[in-house]
Amino acid sequence: MAEQLGKTARHYRKNASSRRKHINDNSPGGKYAHSNAYKRQHAAARSRLKIRSSSVDASKQPDGSYKAESRKANRARGGAKRR
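Above: the chain sequence. Below: its structure as tokens.
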């Protein structure tokens, strides 16, 4: 008896471009390649801004600078996910 495919597997079989992106995102060095550099930049920004509290974020501004901002306000905006 043939195995039933899940909804996600069926989607990736039908959509070639989605499948390529999915494979790229889940391959080593794909989706998270920027993570270490990103963490270093943000750690340095937190240090420069003298942020010690976990309730404060180093919020990246459109001009590339950072500012100390409430974590709640920063993350409520949605960042990169807001479109």
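The chain has a mean pLDDT of 86.
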